[in-house]
Amino acid sequence: MTPEPKSADQWFAEHTLVHTGSDRDFIHWMCAPLLFLSVLGLLWSIPVPAALAAGLLGFRWSLPAIVLALIYYARISLPLAIGLLGFVVLCLVAISQVALHAPWPVWQVCVVLFVVGWIGELVGRVLDRRIPSLARDLAFIVIGPAWLMSKLYRKLGLRY
């Protein structure tokens, strides 16, 4: 028998264990979205076979990842999925702007952002004397932004 999937509150409770509520949460507010953005950008950068690109105008490998992430978000909380759709759109706009204006390819920019994001997360966790969530479970690359969105919803008095 497979275990029940975790609820949003269960994921957030587990994620909260590595966050002390300190001023270093600022690091997480910067680095978790940066890591998510960089992974999307790296997926966006994977070359698409000509046959697939010809059949689907504008297809990028980030699209299936986004769809899967949004389906997952909707499973744990539809209101959070709606908010996170807005965040994903902002990420895609940022990636497209990098593609249009940066002097380097998107994948190179995203590798740098990924390294910076991880360094920031590691610094925050060393200061808190905690192991980063991602080190225990890679699912937190998706949960981190949802956790932050849930905190934003609470501040705005919205239910998730």
What does this structure look like?
With 160 residues, the protein is mostly helical. The protein is 74% helix and 0% strand. It is globular. The model has no long low-confidence stretch (mean pLDDT 85).
Total strand count, please?
0
Structural class: mainly alpha
Report the C-alpha radius of gyration, rounded: 17 Å
Main sheet specs: none
Helical run tally: 8
What proportion of the residues is helical, as a percent range? over 70%
Q: Would you tell me the overall average pLDDT?
A: 85
- SSE order, as H and E? HHHHHHHH
Spans of at least 5 consecutive residues whose pLDDT stays below 50 are none
What separation lies between the terminal Cα atoms?
29 Å
Strand content: under 5%
Shape: globular
Notable characteristics:
mainly alpha, 74% helix, globular, 160 residues
Task: Report a brief summary of the structure.
By secondary structure, this protein is mainly alpha-helical. It is built from eight helices and no strands. The relative contact order is 0.20.
